Amino acid sequence: MKKIYLLTTLFFLLFFKNYAQKTENPINNEKVSSTSSKSIQNLSCVVNGINITTTGTQLGTYNTPTVDNSCPVNVSTTTGVIGTGTSNTGWIRYTFSSPVSSVTIGYSSVNSHDSGLISINNPSGVFLSNPCGVYITGNNVITGNNFGDETLYGDINIRVSAATLGATFTQITLTNISGLIGSGWASANACNFIIHPTQPTSFSNCLKIYLDSFCYNATQSQTTAHSVFNGTIIDESCFGMPCLINGLPCSSSNVILELEEPLPFGCILNPNGTVTFPPGTMPFYHEFNYRLRSIANGAASIYYRASIRIHKKVLPASPTIYIDADGPINGVYSNGSVNILNGAATSQINTSTTGVCGYIPSVIGQPNVSNTVSIIETTTPQNPYYRINTGTGAIVFRPPYNASNPPPVPTLPEKNYYLTYQMCINNTGAVSFCENGQVTIHHYYDNFKQGNKIDTKNISIYPNPSLDGNFTVSLEDNKTSFDLEVYDMLGQLIYFKEKNHSNDILINLTTFSKGIYLIKIKSDDEVINKNIVIK
Fold it and tell me: Do 241 and 120 share a domain, yes or no?
């Protein structure tokens, strides 16, 4: 019986030894050996008074491989290590007993097979920064690509923050998403967590700034001298205030720049706030929105706006022709007297291809001249009265109209006609530079010939508001007769006056209380309403 008992005992010991070896479930080539692969395991530690509980799909002991520990994470070999296992559903979760806004976490023995999805329990999302030994390959994905070889391992750490200023969270979850054989994650010792204190972050920057203007450069890239940290101010509300974060000047060392949308034409917003244009970038003007994000805690600013420009190569003139419909047609304009190439409005081109801005007047039809342009009229539908002479650039009557047979007086007191055209530099080789221009032909009556009407642009009331109830209503034109009435907010008429021959009308409301009053200026069937205020 003793022999049978001993043989039976030996059999069971050998069976359990083999079973235990088969249940080993390595992570990252035997970084973790499982001691219980079917239940979720956890470890805890207290850091800065906050209890951190680490849970995951696998609890094991740490088999130390040869690793790059330039990003040390202090892996625990005594309390065990939480792992994801090799499954794509494997996960590691850190739970904090109190809300936090930014922490630095670490993982052990990461190689190029490892990819993990990091999330937090805050709807604003997660912001990852300060990676050491790992790449941020998406908004919330980390990958050990910087080791290059799956046989090489390295400890890594990364800062995890809430995506918006002031947001907090109590859980971080990493899910293994690699899908490659041997992939998986092993957590670092929770006692090595760095919990960053919640600090309010303040940003200031001009709401709209201008960086730089360039001219077309065919072969060289160009980078703005100004940056979004110190651009030329075009928003008067800024009063020259530089970009600041928590009172310190913004730089690539304390903020990350985030574009709302990518820049056009391959332009790049650099970490120092400048913009680089690739060689041969065609002329354009662009405004873009960007925001600042604190490297310290991941807080984000509002969106600001900046402008960049490469000047046009060709600048077509857009002249305005004035024709007094009540006077002689030659009083302001005569046939061909306005030309889009020269005169008050001059068309120009920049002949440089090396980024130098040097504009010279354009010409038509001269061979072997660097500033030669061609013109195509694009007016649609065709104007019945006027056209552009594309050989000379002159604005001329369209037959049968001419100086002795001008177009008829328009039926409206004022009417504009438009001629549109395209002007192209026609000696620039393979690259075409074209811009659109417009001519405005303005028929008008003088104001006094429009009948008994008042132009609201010619009315001014001052002071408004008034401290003592005295106001002056001033009109540039005293030829129009009208009545002036003042009403209180109950609709009661409190003041009336007919216009005299003076352009200025004094209104005395010194006996009335503070508040808002309505002035009505009546001329024939026209009524103009204005508000005045007694303070």
Answer: no
Whether residue 159 contacts residue 129, with contact meaning beta carbons closer than 8 Å, is answered with: yes
The pTM score is 0.51
Question: What confidence score (pLDDT) does residue 18 get?
Answer: 34
In angstroms, the Cα distances linking 178 to 149, 154, 183, 186 are 15, 17, 6, 14
Output the domain CATH number for residue 277: 2.60.40
Q: Which one, of 507, 392, 505, lies nearest residue 459 by Cα?
A: 505
Cα separation, 334 vs 489, whole angstroms? 54
Tokens of 176: 């293994």
Q: What is the CATH number of the domain that holds 430?
A: 2.60.40.60
443 burial type by CB count under 10 A (0-12 exposed, 13-18 middle, 19+ buried): buried
Domain count of the fold of the chain? 4
| Inter-residue contact 133 to 109 (CB < 8 Å) | no
Rounded CA-CA distance 342/373 in Å is 13
Cβ(30)–Cβ(188) under 8 Å? no
Domain boundary (176, 195, 214) is at: 195
Kindly state the average pLDDT of the residues 510-532: 76
Residue predicted with more confidence, 184 or 42? 184
pLDDT of the residue at 410: 66
3-state secondary structure of 383: coil
Cis peptide before 72 (omega within 30 of 0): no
Do the domain assignments include residue 435?
yes
Q: How far apart are CA 349 and CA 351, in angstroms?
A: 6
Chain centre distance of CA 103: 29
The domain in which residue 256 lies consists of 203-310
Q: Which CATH number goes with the domain that contains 85?
A: 2.60.120
